[in-house]
Amino acid sequence: DQQVKQNSPSLSVQEGRISILNCDYTNSMFDYFLWYKKYPAEGPTFLISISSIKDKNEDGRFTVFLNKSAKHLSLHIVPSQPGDSAVYFCAASADAGNNRKLIWGLGTSLAVNP
Amino acid sequence: GAGVSQSPRYKVAKRGQDVALRCDPISGHVSLFWYQQALGQGPEFLTYFQNEAQLDKSGLPSDRFFAERPEGSVSTLKIQRTQQEDSAVYLCASSLLQGRQPQHFGDGTRLSIL
Lengths: 114, 114
Hints:
The structure holds two protein chains of two kinds. Chain A contains no helices and eleven strands. Chain A is mainly β. Chain A has strands at residues 4-5, 10-14, 19-25, 30-38, 45-51, 56-59, 62-67, 72-77, 86-94, 103-104, 108-113. Chain B is mainly β. Helix content of chain B is 0%, strand content 48%. In chain B, the strands form two sheets. In chain B, strands 2, 4, 5, 6, 9, 10 and 11 form a seven-stranded mixed sheet that branches. Chain B is globular. Classes of the chains: A mainly beta, B mainly beta. At the A-B interface, strand 4, strand 5, strand 9 and strand 10 of A face strand 4, strand 5, strand 9 and strand 10 of B.
């Protein structure tokens, strides 16, 4: 039973346009959400996170939106660049003391075309 | 070093052999996590350490899997009597202890069992 779902396995956008990656979750106990970027043969690289007390967090070209009532979050990349081409993972954690183990989606492969 | 370091990067073993995977976390990071990532999947939680204490090993798939962090820094994941289904990428992550902190990952060890 997938608690974190990324329903789009792949996404292709033109350079300079907006990329929107989506993520849904089922566990209402999740209170911290993260996006990671992964290149082949490398580990996941942390991009941006959001706490459940917020509905938006922005860092440069990256913005994450959280809709708690819909149990949905999205990552916006504006403008998209060819170097953004990678697999993007959504992950979530619940408050379990200091053990914030991450529950992951299956990832979305983003291709940004020049 | 500045990041999480894992070794070896690649490991090939015959079925039935024992293997040991090493993780050197970011200096000062109290929390350490191990994850297993199968091909085409998101990472799945294996175990969590707070300093030298293993507080959660609920994700270890069998008693053939053993992890330790004896001095609260370097950690070793050991798999005894390896089987083909153990083939995966093993990722180590570390983070600061308190609050909602992102986990920072190494590049992983790709384990192939023949």
